[in-house]
Write a structure and sequence with these properties.
Layout: H1 25-31, H2 33-42, H3 46-52, H4 73-82, H5 86-105, H6 117-121, H7 128-137, H8 153-175
Length: about 180
């Protein structure tokens, strides 16, 4: 790793699949060519990830993200949405509508292009940059916008069964 130009403080060995570890993907083809070929054959997108993760995490939406110069954050968000399959695009569109509506209820008549990063990261202000970050992270449930994943139908059935079992247990205790 030293010969590859990596500082001693940055040298580490671990699996390449975590958020922090992705930054070191580019080292595999230099340090472990056999492992690198195994990764390429096994993991879709690993080569693209190793090429683009060096751009301050822009490919994954972490850290600092950037947009093309000819776009505003809103137009970049719409461009990203336009490249998605219809079902996915519709899902994000409905989530974004809820996000925008909730901030309008709080007094934001217009969603700003961006806000101070510290406030965006704490989810204290809305921005089109936050919505772009959600898309780049593939944050399907828009947790980066303060939204939650809805409970599934199976969870509702589980609760019904659990409640029935509790009622039966109480009935047996009281009846015996």
């Amino acid at each position: 790793m030293t010969m590859a130009g990596v500082k001693v403080s940055q040298q580490r060995l671990c699996q390449p699949y975590g958020d922090d570890q992705r930054r070191g993907l580019w080292l595999y083809h230099i340090l472990e060519p056999d492992t690198w070929y195994k990764l390429i054959n096994r993991v879709n997108g690993v080569n693209s990830g190793s090429l683009y993760v060096q751009e301050n995490g822009n490919i994954s939406g972490y850290n600092k993200i950037s947009k093309p110069d000819e776009h505003t954050w809103k137009s970049f968000c719409n461009m990203l949405l336009s490249t998605m399959p219809v079902k996915t695009r519709d899902h994000y569109h409905s989530r974004f509508k809820k996000f925008i509506h909730s901030w309008r209820d709080r007094g934001y008549t217009e969603i700003p292009q961006e806000a101070p990063l510290e406030l965006e990261n704490k989810c204290w202000v809305p921005s089109w940059r936050r919505m772009c970050k959600v898309l780049l992270r593939n944050d399907y449930w828009c947790k980066g916008l303060g939204q939650t994943q809805p409970k599934s139908e199976a969870y509702g059935k589980f609760l019904d069964i659990r409640n029935e079992n509790r009622k039966k247990a109480l009935k047996n205790e009281n009846g015996n």
